[in-house]
Task: structure prediction
Amino acid sequence: MDINYWRQPQGVALPQDELKFLYIPDDVEAYMVAELAWQVYDYQQAHAEDGQQITKAVMVTMGGLLPGVLMHDHIAWSAKKHIPPIEFGTLGVQCYAGPGKPLDQPRVIQELTVNVDGHVVGVVEDLVDLGGTAKFVRQLLLSKGARGVVLVAPFLKNTRMVEEMEVIWFSVVPKDTWIITPRERVETLIKRVPYWRTQGATLADCEVNLKTIGYPDYLIQRYLPLVYRRRT
Result:
């Protein structure tokens, strides 16, 4: 793993698509989340005396579930007495209709499952794109009594967010790149292959596209023939 590459990775360009695609391997996802957890730990130590330590964490579904669950193992408990435990909960927010298709406004699809009143809250996302979702969630949590909000995400596409709220992140990715995390590999394949077909891609072209992106053979063999031949 070349971790320096993953600080500013570049997506793969394809003949039948205006987007670029960045496929995240399992070990890279795990390392990124561990790095984020260590940054959270540093944040907790830095705020041990001022009352601004994070005591609640909200995983924004669906994207925040995988990094949130991995992060829970690192930061839910601490061996040091001056670092409090963090209670995790979820909040369902829909932001995209599909790859490269953000909704006009985020919308809540599952209510908050943890009480944030009087707490500093870490909001766990998979990425920050236009920043609208982060702002939406932040305002929602503040309206429910949160004393502060810290955004935690492996990927940033909008670095201006660090000027608007406290952000802990790992990697910066260009805005034209669709990040394929481990939890949405099949979803991306199912949604993008039909688009390539409308652009004139053959079944063989789609297989080349997926291999170029980084898809393993077992996913291509299982899903590509079914998805390509399916008519919408």
Summary: The chain has a mean pLDDT of 92. The longest strand covers residues 87-98.
